Amino acid sequence: MHGDRNSCRPFSLTVDSIPLAARIAAAERFGVSLVAENQASLGTQSGEGRPAAGKARRVIEAVLLAGVESTSLEMALIGSYDAFIEVADPAARRDDLDIDDTVWAAASLHPFFLSLTTETLVSVRGAMVICNTLVARGILGREQRANVELCLQEAVANAVVHGNLGVPSNAKRQEHGYRAFSHMIGERLHVPELRRRRVDIFARWDAQHITLGVADQGSGYDLDALRRVRHESRRSPSGRGFLFMQALADAVDIGDGGRRIALRFSRTGAKLAMAETQNR
Amino acid sequence: MDFSTRSVADGIEVRLNGRLEFTDHDRLRDIVALLDQGHSRRFVVDLSDLAFIDSAGLGMLLILQEETDQRNIKFIVRSPKNEVKRSLELAKIGEIITIEY
């Protein structure tokens, strides 16, 4: 099956084989402390989403994927692997894979990590599939699932549309803007450099919280513009995604110049429970 | 998202199925095109079979509201359930669009 258009291949990589400079850069990009990670690896600090005490995580157990669609992605995620990375040819040797050390370095930081191309994320139900997997693995409770899925969906949509494809957020706000918006997405997906940009999605957790994050390769986001969103017309067809995240996540952390968003949720109780809204 | 349409007494009813997401803007164009068929006075979007809607999907409902306004057609969103209902409530869409539960 190797080399097929639709294929996957398990792939193990030792963390020590990733250059330290790449790991430091990834830690900065994802707002993770490498010192804390090393302490966790040495067993001085542990949690369910980190290596077990005394069992240092020295190997990334990954799956390399190609020709991804929703069903094959969900099937691949069923296994107990740490990282799922889309590549052009899963059968290639490490040096010939179309990913560099930055992807491996990012994978080494997170107990659950996906790296998919923009092109793929437009066609798969990424947030839904990831939440299905996290529920199946017992990491995400059914009660939290609705909030987490909506927030993850918003973060992925932002990373794809406004991040990697660079479609301006005001594109929909002119008359018949949705036509221009739709046209712009289609047009930019035809540009190889843009459609091959990656979106990295990760999850980390401990007994109390789960944090999901999304990082893109776009040119960043004007955080002041994001803060202005709440003052815009409530009839505007865009701008609600960030408001959803603020309302439903316990904490929203934006970093790397607007290219990364991390959303923290309680694992024991939803900030805004479904029942609460249904009873209104 | 998929949709089916049927003519009712004074207009058109569109039933959405699946998930209404940021990747569905092309389908929106097809739905807007329905507004120019015949002489509708009401345009109903039934959400009872819709399982999920994101903020871009809500934006599409607001675009439909604007497009129907311009044609002097009454726009009604009907029967949102579960998570879809919750998202509409969270965004207070009911203050802008008529929702029949």
Largest sheet of chain A: 8 strands, mixed
State Rg of chain B. Answer: 12 Å
What is the subunit arrangement here? heterodimer
**Uncertain spans of chain B:** none
The radius of gyration of chain A is 19 Å
- Per DSSP, what share of the residues of chain A sits in E-state strands of 2 or more residues? 15-25%
Average of the residue pLDDT scores of chain A: 84
Query: Within the largest sheet of chain A, what's the order of strands?
Result: 1-2-3-4-5-6-8-7
Order of helices and strands of chain A: EHHEHEHEHHHHHEEHHEEH
Enumerate how many helices of chain B there are, as a single number: 3
Describe, in plain words, how this protein is organized in 3D.
The complex is a heterodimer of chains A (280) and B (101). By secondary structure, chain A is α+β, with helices and mostly antiparallel strands. Chain A is built from 12 helices and 8 strands. Chain A has an 8-stranded mixed sheet with strand order 1-2-3-4-5-6-8-7, with helices on both faces. In chain A, α3 packs parallel to α6 and α7 packs antiparallel against α11. Chain A is globular and about 50 Å long. Chain B is α/β, with parallel strands linked by helices. Chain B is built from 3 helices and 5 strands, in the order ββαβαβαβ. A 5-stranded mixed sheet of chain B has the order 1-2-3-4-5. The two termini of chain B are 21 Å apart. In chain B, 44% of the residues are buried. The mean pLDDT of chain B is 93. At the A-B interface, α7, α8, α11 and α12 of A face α1, α2 and α3 of B.
